[in-house]
Specification:
Blueprint lengths: L1 H7 L1 E6 L13 H4 L4 E6 L1 H9 L3 H13 L16 H21 L3 E4 L5
Length: 117
C-alpha cells in the first residue's frame, strides 16, 4: 500500500484542521507528503451550508438503509439530553454533503474534527 500511495498519491480532505484545539490530530505536511498523501483543507462552514441543500428525502433514504442493515436507535423526546430522529436525519444530511464535497475536491478520504455536538 505504501508503494501504491507513493506512485498514485492520495488526497485527504480535512475539515478545519486543528479546530477545537485538536492539535494532536494534525500530521505536519512535511511528514505526510513524502508518504504520497496530501491534504485538501476544507471548511466546516461550507459543509454546514452544503447540508442545508441536501433534500430530507435523501437523508431519509440513508436512514432507511441504516435501519434495513440492522442499525438500532433509541430515541427520546428531549433533543438537549437524548438522541432524536431529527438529529439522525441531520447527520445523514451531513454525510451526504461530505460525499458531495469529497467528490468535488477529488478526495480519497475525509476527516472531520468532531466532538460531542
Amino acid at each position: 500500500m505504501a508503494r501504491e500511495l507513493k506512485l498514485t498519491k492520495a488526497i485527504l480532505g480535512i475539515f478545519d484542521e486543528g479546530c477545537m484545539g485538536m492539535y494532536n490530530a494534525i500530521i505536519p505536511d512535511e511528514l505526510l507528503h513524502p508518504t504520497g498523501v496530501f491534504k485538501e483543507r476544507l471548511s466546516q462552514s461550507a459543509l454546514y451550508a452544503a447540508m442545508r441543500e441536501v433534500p430530507e428525502s435523501d437523508a431519509r433514504a440513508v436512514y432507511g438503509w441504516l435501519l434495513k442493515k440492522g442499525m438500532k436507535f433509541i430515541f427520546g423526546p428531549d433533543a438537549e439530553t437524548e438522541l432524536t430522529e431529527a438529529q439522525v436525519i441531520e447527520q445523514c444530511k451531513m454525510y451526504i454533503a461530505v460525499l458531495h464535497i469529497a467528490d468535488d475536491f477529488g478526495c480519497d478520504a475525509i476527516g472531520i474534527q468532531y466532538q460531542r455536538g
